[in-house]
Every structure is written in structure tokens, then in C-alpha cells.
Design goal:
This protein has a single domain, classed as Sandwich (Jelly Rolls), CATH 2.60.120.330. A hairpin with a 5-residue loop joins strand 7 and strand 8. With about 325 residues, it is α+β, with helices and mostly antiparallel strands. The chain contains six helices and 13 strands. Helix content is about 25%, strand content about 20%. Bound molecules: 2-oxoglutaric acid and fe (ii) ion.
Amino acid sequence: MFASYRTDSTFEEIPIIDLKDATNPDLQVREALAVRIRDACINVGFFYVTNHGIPESVINQALDAAKGFFALPLSTKEELDIHKSPNFKGYTALLGENSNPENRGDLHEGFDVGWEDPVTLTVRDEGGMDGKNVWPEGLPGFRDKVMDYYHAALALGRCLFPLFARALDIDEHFFDDKTTKPAAIMRLLYYPPQTGPIDGIQGIVCFTILWQDNVQALQVLNPNRKWVNAVPIPGTLVINIGDQLARWTNDVFKSTVHRAVNTSGVERYSIPLFFGSNYDVKLEAIPSCCSEEFPSKYPVVTAGEYVKSRLEETYAHSKK
Ligand SMILES: O=C(O)CCC(=O)C(=O)O
Ligand SMILES: [Fe+2]
């Protein structure tokens, strides 16, 4: 029934959605929220959330950890280089990653972590990017600060799925068994002041939950090919739909091209968490998003195959 919901309408602003009613017992209240989310996912592919439930103290601790890490000597960071990790964990140097092979590389430094059990610190191994994290030495509390934010963002991600399901008019629990072991990678990002070229990127997961500091850099491409600023709004997080949800919804939900360019003259930090489904889940178009006129557009692949192939493309361009 949503198959034909493809819009040519453009946008100049990114909607702000209040999540305070995400688990309201009143079905009509949840439905009203889902309608707003549907509208944002169909028309923009991006929205801000308020009342997202992640305490400010948890965010500040993660930011503190990021600042401590990126201030380490380059040689120390390079010991944790992501190219040494079989499962895409660790440090990406400035210009080390390249989401567009035409360009010289992305102008940020990054540090990637994945899921680990908060109590036993053990990891899963479902293939893909699962497996051990790497941790710097000499930064007390770093791991806890980073993982506390990771688990808080993961919890937020889980509570978005029933809303997406409702927005698609399918069983609220549709995504539950597909996200029991979600492939969620979190990244600390540091953008030095820059003026060089930057790339347009599309998320490869279900959606991204992004915390950004107060420095303007994130931009979203609208259908008129104009870059719309995702202005930093204190107290919010930015949610953007990625390619997995776009495939699942047969492009009814948009995975919108975006980029981050820091021409502010000052340093910028951001923390995206990329929320992917379980690796073994087949990304198969949801029936409400297909019709005779709009048949399923994509071959069916598992989430794991899809993410891995996209990541290998990204890192292949930057192999040292
Ligand atoms: O740093 C940002 O604001 C956005 C980063 C991003 O979108 C990404 O890494 O996919
Ligand atoms: Fe992104």
C-alpha cells in the first residue's frame, strides 16, 4: 500500500520529532508519532529527535573519551590502525578512508567499535564486522565511556524499530527477531578545520543515530541538488535512514546522500552509531512497499553480505 509513495517533493528543512510518546500505552498517540516518522522517512530520509533518552552525562563522557583519543600521538593511534583489524575496528587516519575513489580521501579521523557484552566484555562472532574491539592504552575509563554511550544508543535504536514498523503499517514487532544481534558499529569522529573537497555518502545500514557537537558541518542533499544544512540543535540527535531500510522498503524510505564538511575554522567532533540488522537477515522488500507498478527493485541479499561488500569497497580504496 506504500509502494507508490514516492515523492518528487523537495525539502529545505529537516523535521524535528519528539520521541516522548514512543512507548505511550495509547495506540493513537503512538500512531500519530509514526505518521510523523513516516513523513520524514518518505520525504527527507533525515530527522532530529528530542527526548531520545540518552543522558547528557553519557554523551559528555563519550565526547571526553573522543577528545582524549584523538589528542594521542599519531604513532600511538596508528598502532590501532583499522587496516590491521580483520573486522574493521580501530583507528582511521586523516585521509585514510575514502568513500569516493575519485577523491583523495575523507577529511576526518575515526575510531570504530562494535558490540561487546557490557558485563562479561565478550564479543559475538556472527561474521561480518563482529569480533574483538581494540582499545588504546593510557586512557583510563576510555572503554567504559565509549561503551556506555554505545549501549545507550543501541537501546534508542531498538525503540525506533516499532515506530518504523508502525509507519510502514506492518506488525509493530516485525523487526524484533531481525534485530536480536544487530550489527551496530559506532564511530568517534574528529574533523579538523578543513577547506578541501569532501564526499557525498549514503548510510549502508538500517539507520544512523548521530550525535554532533555545535559546529555546523553536516549537509543533506535535497532532490533539487541543493545541500541543506543539518544545523546542530542542542539536545537532539540526528537519525538518518540507510540503505538497508531503503532496500527493505523498496526505496519508499529514502537513504539520502549527505556529507560533512567542516569549514568553520574550528575542530568538530561527532559520534554516529550505524544500526544494522542481524547479519543473517534477508533484505527482502516488505510487501506493503511493492505493487505491480512498483515491483521489488533490488536482488535479495543478507544484511551481512551487503554490509561487508560495501565496507570492502570503502577500505579497498584506502589500503596502504
Ligand atoms: O559527522 C557527521 O556529521 C556525519 C557522519 C556520517 O554521516 C557518516 O559517517 O556516515
Ligand atoms: Fe552518514
